[in-house]
């Protein structure tokens, strides 16, 4: 333990002249300047999609049908909503492709 303290003291004493000499290396005032940096700002693509349809297979509707034990109703809701989901995904894909071809980021999803 004592050896570690002596070693630490020796390191501090040997490094002290270099630290103090380095802190006084400059005598002039710092130069303050303004630099203009041009960064391209990408404007997001406008959302050109139609409003989202009223999906019949909402979580609440399917859960309510399953809670009633009506598996046929839950299945009917899911089958009725499936084409609407596919249509919406096709619109999303077209929107993303249009934005990508224009070099813009796609709009934020709902």
Give the gist of this structure:
The chain contains three helices and no strands.
What does this structure look like?
This protein has 110 residues and is mainly alpha-helical. Helices cover 57% and strands 0% of the residues. The chain has helices spanning 2-23, 59-67, 71-102. The longest helix has 32 residues, at 71-102. The radius of gyration is 34 Å and the shape is elongated. It starts with a helix and ends in an 8-residue tail after the last helix. The mean pLDDT is 82.
Helix proportion range: 55-70%
Q: What fraction of residues sit in β-strands?
A: under 5%
Radius of gyration: 34 Å
Query: Which word captures the global form?
Result: elongated
Helix/strand-derived category reads mainly alpha
Instruction: Work out the number of β strands.
Output: 0
Segments where pLDDT lies below 50 for 5+ residues?
Answer: none
- Number of distinct helices: 3
Mean pLDDT: 82
Listing every helix as H and every strand as E from the N terminus to the C terminus, the arrangement reads HHH
Distance between the termini: 64 Å
The biggest beta sheet reads: none
Q: Which helices and strands appear, and what pairs or packs with what?
A:
Elements lengths: L1 H22 L35 H9 L3 H32 L8
Helix pairs in contact: 2-3
Key terms for this structure?
110 residues, mainly alpha
């Amino acid at each position: 333990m004592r050896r570690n303290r002596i070693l630490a003291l020796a390191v501090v004493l040997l490094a002290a002249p270099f630290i103090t000499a380095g802190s006084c290396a400059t005598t002039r005032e710092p130069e303050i300047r303004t630099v203009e940096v041009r960064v391209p700002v990408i404007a997001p693509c406008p959302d050109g999609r139609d409003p989202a349809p009223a999906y019949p297979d909402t979580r609440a509707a399917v859960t309510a049908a399953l809670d009633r034990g009506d598996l046929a109703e839950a299945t009917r809701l899911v089958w009725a909503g499936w084409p609407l989901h596919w249509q919406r995904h096709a619109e999303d894909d077209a929107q993303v492709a249009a934005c990508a071809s224009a070099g813009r980021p796609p709009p934020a999803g709902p």
